Amino acid sequence: MVHFQLIGEMSKISLKILLVDDDYLLAKGTAKLIQRLGGHEVKITDNPTDIMSRCQSGTVDLVLMDVNLPGAEWEGKGVSGADLSRILKTNPITAEIPVILITAYAMLSERQELMEISMADDFYPKPITDYNTLLAAIAQLVSGSA
User: What pLDDT digit, counting tens, does each position of 51-97 carry?
Assistant: First the structure.
């Protein structure tokens, strides 16, 4: 669900973003910058059950998903962010939620394979250094899926 806020004469889309990252301190900093620069609400988790519950509830407009999630388990199996993205994308209830993979470990040569495995909508390298480009990618994905 996309929410609109009027700011002056321009309307600005305010999204509910789920940031999935195992590094809470890094995620907290990322969330604050996305909130300040983009005006979006950001929730942080690294728990697969929480991810699925929030996404299935209809309260998430977009997921920023770290690929590396050590210790994450879904249905008794270890999973990565790419696995969780694929699970979201193959579930009819959550398939339309845009997913952007974020990772510090994938080489550009691995990007295509990660995108195919995960069925994600986009890929962004960590550390995030250009928040304006990330916010533009988020806006483009959401406007394309709205």
Answer: 999 999 999 999 999 999 999 999 999 999 999 999 999 999 999 99
Contacts of residue 74, Cβ cutoff 8 Å, sequence gap at least 6: 48, 49, 52, 83, 84, 87
Closest CA to 52 of 9, 97, 103, 100: 97
Q: Which residues contact 11 (CB under 8 A, 6 or more apart)?
A: 4, 5
Strands 3-7 and 99-103: unpaired
Q: Distance (Å, rounded) from C-alpha 90 to C-alpha 82?
A: 12
C-alpha 35/C-alpha 15 separation (Å) is: 10
Counting Cβ atoms within 10 Å, is residue 78 exposed (0-12), middle (13-18) or buried (19+)?
A: exposed
DSSP string, 128-139: ---HHHHHHHHH
pTM here is: 0.88
